[in-house]
Amino acid sequence: LDPRLAEAHHNAGALLQEVGDLRAAADYLRTAHALRPAARDTLVMLGNVLDRLGDHVTAGGLLLKAVGLYP
User: What is the SS3 assignment for 4?
Assistant: First the structure.
């Protein structure tokens, strides 16, 4: 996994979410978000994962940011 490639981290996070490893998914998605902060798909997926993990405040902020990027 190229540590500089946001898409690779996003894809790993998506796969981990699919198999139910939400904590690992969140880690990969956080890295993807750090590398590409304006990537709406990553913001939405990370927000959804964090919501499922019970971090509703952070999840809500990320989802609002995603909406704000593309009104």
Answer: coil
